[in-house]
Amino acid sequence: MTGNAAGQTGTPVGQTANGTLPPGDSAAAVVAAAIGQTEPAMEAVGISRDYKLGHGQTLHAVRDVSFGLYRGAVVALVGESGSGKSTVARLLAGQEKLTSGTIRLLGQPADVSSTRKFRGYKSEVQLVFQDPFASLNPVHTVRYHLERPVRLHQKHSGDGIKKELSALVEQVRLLPAEQFLSKYPHELSGGQRQRVSFARALAAKPSVLLADEPVSMLDVSIRLEMLNLLDDLRKRFQLALLYITHDIASARYFADEVLVMYAGEIVERGPAEDLTQQPAHPYTQLLIASAPDPDNLGSSLRRGGTRGTRPSDRPAATPTGCSFSPRCPFADDRCRAEAPALQTVTGGRQAACWHLDQAAPSLLADHPATGSPAPQQFTAQEPQPQGGGE
Amino acid sequence: MATPVPGDTVPAGETYGNEPVLAIRDLSVAYRTPGGDVRAVNNMSLSLHPGEVVGLAGESGSGKSTLAYGACRLLRPPAVVTSGSVYYRGRRMAKPVDIMQLQRSELQQLRWREIAIVFQSAMNALNPVLKVEAQLLDVIHTHLKLSRADAREKAASLMDLVGIPRTRLRSYPHQLSGGMRQRVSIAMALATDPEVVIMDEPTTALDVVVQRDILAQIVELKERLSFAILFITHDLSLLLELADRIAVMYAGQLLEVARSHEIQHEPSHPYTRGLINSFPSLRGARRDLAGIPGTPPDLRNPPSGCPFRPRCGYATDACADVSMELTPVSSSTHLDHVTACPFVLPETPAPARPAAAVASGEPAVKELRS
Description:
The complex is a heterodimer of chains A (about 400) and B (about 375). Chain A is of the alpha/beta class. Chain A folds into 2 domains: about 35-275, Rossmann fold (3-Layer(aba) Sandwich), CATH 3.40.50.300; about 280-290 and about 315-365 and about 375-390, no CATH class. Helices cover about 30% and strands about 20% of the residues of chain A. Chain A has 13 helices and 12 strands. Chain A has helices at about 25-35, 85-90, 115-120, 140-155, 160-170, 175-180, 190-200, 220-235, 250-255, 270-275, 280-290, 335, 355-360, and strands spanning about 40-55, 55-70, 75-80, 100-105, 110, 125-130, 210, 240-245, 255-260, 265-270, 345, 350. An 8-stranded mixed sheet of chain A has the order 6-7-8-3-9-10-12-11, sandwiched between helices. In chain A, strands 2-1-4-5 form a 4-stranded antiparallel sheet. In chain A, helix 4 crosses helix 5, helix 4 (about 140-155) runs parallel beside helix 7 and helix 7 (about 190-200) packs parallel to helix 8. Chain B is globular. The relative contact order of chain B is 0.13.
């Protein structure tokens, strides 16, 4: 479904007609420009991926997604399970065929049509998986896991390989290196295994690292250290990093730019701090309101909190219109009929919503909306049809 | 009844009673392995009062689930309860019983009827080849004496209770969403009107939006049916919002027990402090995040004294000899704020650099993306 592309009919009240953002304006690009990187290392241009479900049904796992990854900058892709974030990672890694759109690597359209070309692609783009218990082979040592990518992607002779292996293990701070190289995965803790996964990805000397929930399987006390390590590696090798997560709080601390995905589409994007502190799209607002908050004294989880309940079954995908409309408190007939395109909200920020004037009136203060109703307060309550979640 | 231990005293005027409904005393659990015993739970004492939500926080392998299952005698060999007692005092009970001393048949009457458990993975807890109704009826017939028609009505009313349409009784677990499955698990646990519900990471596998719905539902049901909850999770930020009191576990030991408010604002034990500084917050100013260097110890060969010693920035030689007994935090106004660390108080200034980082030559842990 490329029908959501920018430039569709109708512009939200108080919005500029310009639907697309100049690439130089994205938060990741600004960060990259500061260290002299102006061209995106990798660019997704309107990529989509459909899955045929049989009975003539199609699942649009990823719909018309566009963004750029810049060397030295972190882009976070946030969304709930099933929103298509991992599919985006697999598409970018060349492990999945695009239904439509293009992926550009260092300015060139990505070509993975032959084994040779795929290998060349892999030496630039590497993927780190979520589960370090599943992604390492239990019958092989750390040395084996690292030696293969080094031999495949780097031109080293015997001694060079040895040195390279030690350097890799030291980069991810598994010390002493020699000792760790001869260990088997079962001898390592979860955090150490994930370090091996990072080292394996770095063995190819990539420019783009796609990290698919790299810390969600790890214990809370380990996570921060791993994110710090990842951040350190990003700086040291000027990696273009895509950080996929369901934890929007970690994205606030770790990423430069945040993309929020819902039902296969990017519904909001912007600089991490701005987006998390003042979410524009109703879905982002719901996501942030749902995160545990120790300081929330009026929380519905506190003693005495009562609320109506109803099953939180994921609504069936709407064939037309905004895919969030069944759960959105602001939804009206237009939302159910027409899908909104990403519109610029303020500098560097975009959201796909017809009712930003109601959902985020304060963000649009510079563009006074005509005849907009009283602002509604969005809370952690499940969206009710109209009337807001009071 | 069990003798009170520090941390159990609840000031008068609280909504929950003074007598704990569940009192775990000096419980120890070991896993017998060829290489020696792994002491998963060490002399732990914890109380749960009627209507109270106690959060048990800890990393994987800290023994939090082992403690809960050990207290219900649900562990199978090689796990053995090596010492301790667990007193249960319910409204339906004539007098308190020690779960560790119960006969098999008595235990069967107690489990589920009095103490129910909600497991982490609802998909694994539910039988995939039976419809939801059959599984609910199974529980009802086993533990309650109801006629067929009444049991069906009870099953339907349980679905109402957790907000799932009655028509879903005819569904198989795989036809339900993750959130619905967890709701069915909760309905099953509540089928017998238990007084204690142990929840073992009930929302960990769910998305945040669904998680919040389910937690709100749990709190609402708790208010309505007034049961006590022992909530096990690794997510401290969740407990800070949800629980009345929080018990922090590490390597089979309780390190600190206090009300949520104190855990958040006046954490005493260095490990608790580390945890509080480990998770990024979504709201408010960006805090300094520090994390905890190192990894949890190998329980086959735990360090002497405080198990957190190798990772602790405050550690001194004296830490090798601490008894790990919970004592009230002297500076706290609340008697129920107890800690296992006799050296560090909430107002103790932070150390310059954690010991483990110094030892391994790691650079000082800094704030993430300043």
